Amino acid sequence: MESNDLYLVYHGLFLPKLAHSENSLNYFEKFVVQDDDVFIVSYPKSGTTWMQEIIPLLLNGGDLTPVQTIPNWDRVPWLEETRAAVVMDKLSSPRAIVSHMPYHLMPSTFFSSKAKVVYIARNPKDVVVSSFHFHRMASFLDDPGTFEEFINKFQTGQVLFGKWTDHMKSWKNPDLGDRILYITYEELVQDLRGGIKRILCFLGRKLSEDALDRVTEHCQFKNMKHNKMSNYSLVPQEIMDSNKSSFLRKGIAGDWKNHFSPELEAKFIATINEEMKGSGIRFSWDE
Ligand code: A3P
C-alpha cells in the first residue's frame, strides 16, 4: 500500500488526505490525554456521528445548545485529523474526543490515563453498505466500483482505517478493563433511550427523566437528519455530493439485505467468522 493523491498511509492504514497530514498525526501521537477525557472510538460508518451527538449531551446535563450551534467535527474532534489542533484548546473538560484509530496506535499517554472509551460497533454488512454509499458521494475518497468490488476492498483492508475485523479485535483488549463500554448501533436503533441510559451510567452521570426524553428525541435519526450541525450539509457540495447520497442516509439496521446476494453474503460472513475466530467477540446482529 502506498500513499496516493487521495490517501496517506499510516502504519499500513489508508487515511484521507483531506483531513489528515503528517502534522496532524504528529499532534495525535504527542497528545496528552487527561483522565476525564471521554473517547468515542469506532470503525468508520458504525455510528460515530450519532455518538458525537449523544456524548456531549450527556456530559453537559442535556443542554442542546452545543449540538445546535457547533458542527460535530469541532464539538467532538477527531484526534488524528487536522481540526484537532485548532479546536482542542476550546473544549472544556470533560472533553469528548473521537478516533478511528486501532487500539495499539493510540497516543502513549492514552495507555497511562484513566480516560474512558465508548466503542460503537455495527454489523459489518451494514458498515460496508454505508461505506459504499459514502464513497459514491465523497470526492476525497476513491470510487467504490461495483458493490462486489468494494466488498473485496473492504475485506482486504484497502479502505479507510484498514480491516473491520482488525479494528474490532484491537479494541477488545483486556487491558482496558472497565474503562471501555461496548455498544452497538443495532442496540441504539432498537432502544435509543435504553442505550443512552447505559452510556450515562458508564460515564457516571445523571439526567432527569425530562432531560433524558429531550436528548433521546433530539438524537433520533429523523431529527438529527435535519440538524445542520451534524448532517454534513455545511460541507460544500463538491466535497460531499448530497445528490448522490446523504451522509445521514437511511439510519437503519439491515439495509445490507437490499445490497447482498445470498452468495455474496455467505462469502462475506465466512471471511469475517474466520478472522474473528478465537477473539471472544460474539455477534448478535443477525439473531
Ligand atoms: P447509513 O449510511 O446506513 O444511513 P458514521 O457517523 O460512523 O460515519 O456512520 C454513519 C452512519 O450512521 C450512517 O448510516 C448514518 O445514517 C448513521 N447514523 C447517524 N446518525 C444516526 C441516527 N441518529 N440514527 C440512526 N443512524 C444514524
Automatic annotation (TrEMBL):
Give GO terms: molecular function aspect only. sulfotransferase activity
Q: Name one Pfam family in it.
A: Sulfotransfer_1
Asked whether the keyword Cytoplasm is assigned, the reply is: yes
Q: Does the keyword Iron-sulfur apply?
A: no
The protein's enzyme class? transferase
Q: Give the GO cellular component terms, alphabetically.
A: cytoplasm
Q: Which InterPro entries match?
A: P-loop_NTPase, Sulfotransferase_dom
List the keywords (alphabetical). Catecholamine metabolism, Cytoplasm, Transferase
User: TM spans, by residue?
Assistant: none
Per the record, the GO terms for biological process are: catecholamine metabolic process; xenobiotic metabolic process
- Its primary localisation, in coarse terms, equals cytoplasm
Cell location? Cytoplasm
Q: Which residues form the Sulfotransferase domain?
A: 35-280
Enzyme Commission no:
2.8.2.-
Name the source's superkingdom. Answer: Eukaryota
- Which PANTHER family does the record match to this protein? SULFOTRANSFERASE SULT (PTHR11783)
**Protein family according to the UniProt entry:** Belongs to the sulfotransferase 1 family.
Q: What is this protein called?
A: Sulfotransferase
Species annotation = Electrophorus electricus (Electric eel)
Q: Which gene encodes it?
A: LOC113567890
